[in-house]
Specification:
This protein is mainly alpha-helical. The protein has helices at residues 2-10, 16-30, 38-56, 71-94, 99-121. Helices cover 74% and strands 0% of the residues. InterPro entries: DCTPP, MazG-like_dom.
């Protein structure tokens, strides 16, 4: 586990493209491409979101930054967040989606809709 921690400390900023490429290589080397259909990746993603949800299930509201959480709890959270991100990146890749561009477009679209809604209310 120490090796994992050291690797994480050295990575300051990584692109989604690099993640996507590393995931694709990881799957290719192991012969997993045959299983990485959009449906299978979506179901795996949903399963990981469920595991992420379990971490919070009985905690009630928690403070930003999780100041009362143990190091082990925070590490577990990071692992589950990572699983969700990795499956999402893989799913976007096999669907041919440019997820970052789509995300920015969605932010702008929501901002425009919210501005329009506020204008209509006044």
């Amino acid at each position: 586990m120490e090796n994992y921690r050291e690797c994480g400390k050295k990575v300051k900023d990584v692109s989604l493209q690099e993640l996507r490429d590393r995931l694709a290589e990881f799957a290719r080397v192991r012969g997993w491409d045959q299983y990485h259909s959009p449906r299978n990746l979506l179901l795996a993603l949903v399963g990981e979101v469920g595991e992420l949800s379990e971490i919070f299930q009985w905690k009630g509201e928690v403070e930003k930054g999780l100041p009362n959480w143990s190091r082990d709890d925070k590490e577990h959270l990071e692992e589950e967040l990572s699983d969700v991100l990795l499956y999402l990146v893989q799913l976007a890749h096999v669907c041919g989606s440019l997820i970052l561009a789509a995300a920015l477009t969605k932010i702008f679209k929501n901002a425009k809709q919210n501005t329009l809604s506020l204008t209509l209310l006044t």
